[in-house]
Design brief:
mainly alpha, 2 domains, 3 helices
């Protein structure tokens, strides 16, 4: 087969796939893609868990994983302080004519 025939066959197969996919109701399509996405996410999370468990103790990914909860707590405290500061500034602006 020549390269033009291969490209033509690939184009016809692609168009046929698109037409076939369009025939499936959109609700079913979304359910299929959601199920595939959930499956893929679970598979990736499981794989990353195994990889992290197999790493030695002092490796950078493990160090980062131990620091993340502390950073999240710090970020929450900073956000709370910023909200409080914003509220105080709003009160001050309302009080100033």
């Amino acid at each position: 087969m020549t390269w033009t025939t291969k490209i033509f066959a690939l184009g016809v197969a692609t168009i046929g796939g698109v037409v076939a996919l369009r025939c499936i109701p959109s609700e079913s399509r979304h359910r299929m893609t959601r199920a595939f996405g959930d499956w893929m996410s679970k598979k990736m999370i499981n794989h990353m868990g195994r990889v992290m468990a197999s790493l030695p103790e002092g490796t950078p990914p493990r160090l980062v994983a131990t620091i993340l909860p502390k950073l999240q707590t710090q970020n929450e405290q900073i956000i709370a302080m910023l909200r409080e500061q914003s509220e105080l500034l709003r009160q001050q602006q309302r009080a100033t004519p």
